[in-house]
Amino acid sequence: MTSTPGSAGPTAATTTPRSELPARVRRFSRGERWIHRTSAVLMTVCLVSAACLYLPSLAQLVGRRHLVVTIHEWSGILLPAPFLIGLVSRAFRADLRRLNRFGAHDRQWWRAALRREKGPRPAGKFNAGQKSYAAWIAGATLVMLGTGLIMWFTHLTPLTWRTGSTFVHDWLALAVSVVLAGHIGKALADPESRRGLRTGSVDRAWAEREHSLWRP
To answer: pTM for the complete prediction?
Structure first.
C-alpha cells in the first residue's frame, strides 16, 4: 500500500526511533518510594523487637523489656499507616490496581518459575511473584495487627481468643520473617530493581527484558 503526496499514510505514523528514547524510564514516584521505605523501617523494627522479646539471648543482651514491648506494639500498630497515607497518591493507587490484577501471562510466569526455566518471563510492571508477595504480606499484616490487638487489650476478649491469637501471631511472625528474607534475597540479586526503588527510574533495556508487557 502506498500513500499520495501530502497524505497521512502508513509511513507517517512512525514510532520514535529507539536511539532517541531516553535510556531510563520512570518506575516509581517519590511518594511510592517513601511508602516502601517507611513500611520497611516499621517492619524491621517490629521484627527485631519481636526477636528481642522471644529469644532469651537477645532479651538478656538488650534488657529493658517494657521499652521493647512498647516499641514492638507501636511499630506494629503504625505499620498500615504508610499504606493508608499513600492512598492520596494517584501513582500509588494505579500501582495497587496493577498488583491486584492477575492475567494469563502471570500464570505463564509462575509455570516458568516453578519449572526453573531460564530466560525472561512475561510480566507487566509487576511480575506474578511480586503480585503474590504483595497480596500475602498485606494479608499477613492485617492478621498480625488483629491478633496483636487481642493480645494487647487482654480485658476485652476471653482467654481462648487470647491463646489462639498468641499461637497465630507467633507462628505467622516466623513465616513473615522467612518470606521477607526471600524478598530481600531477590532484591539483592537484582541491582536494577533496587535502583528503581532508590531513584525512581530504571534502565530501559532492563525494563524491556524483565517486564516486557509494561508500557511506561
So the answer is: 0.82
